[in-house]
Fold this sequence. Notes:
The complex is a heterodimer.
Chain A (H helix, E strand, L loop, with lengths): L4 E3 L2 E4 L5 E6 L6 E7 L6 E7 L2 E4 L8 E4 L6 E5 L8 E8 L9 E2 L3 E5 L1
Parallel strand pairs in A: 2-11
Antiparallel strand pairs in A: 1-3, 3-8, 4-5, 4-9, 5-6, 7-8, 9-10, 9-11
Chain B lengths: L2 E3 L4 E5 L4 E3 L2 E3 L4 E8 L5 E7 L5 E3 L5 E5 L4 E6 L8 E9 L8 E2 L3 E6 L1
Amino acid sequence: EAGVAQSPRYKIIEKRQSVAFWCNPISGHATLYWYQQILGQGPKLLIQFQNNGVVDDSQLPKDRFSAERLKGVDSTLKIQPAKLEDSAVYLCASSKAGTSTDTQYFGPGTRLTVL
Amino acid sequence: AQSVAQPEDQVNVAEGNPLTVKCTYSVSGNPYLFWYVQYPNRGLQFLLKYITGDNLVKGSYGFEAEFNKSQTSFHLKKPSALVSDSALYFCAVRAEYNQGGKLIFGQGTELSVKP
């Protein structure tokens, strides 16, 4: 079974530029999560999708971050404009049904550096 | 509010010795608890979870964890450490009522196993 795929793996941009990350979850997984992991911290949820609907985006900085999951499969996370404090690893995860006992499986992440 | 504490930033163990990585949690209602491992430049890899039942949970790569409700702890253990176990370990919690919701992660513990 293929795991969660993410691209790119690394991205370096200047502040105020825009950037987009892509995620392909495990086949058949209905729930998709984007987490932000700042160096030295645990991952923090940015947004959760159930199929193509948003379940939780309470910690997404909506003035600069946006995400979509068209057709309930792949997802993209965009930052526009980027700030220095957005430097982090962006992790995508998926789970089968999104229930409270479900295991989330993570992709390799995209390491973003904002200069 | 849900929270997780990993009181040790780093744990050092000699190869062949037992290891323990500590985790305590705070959640309303019954907790669902997870351990993940992160190798350099990799995403989080699922090790094990506690949902209900036996307090001792066995997981991947010889790891196990013990759920202690009275002490609100979920320590990760392994009887005999390997150098290849050196990595960053994260404990996470989700409340039973939080259907499909986000995982709350600790800040991580760096495990270093020396030959």
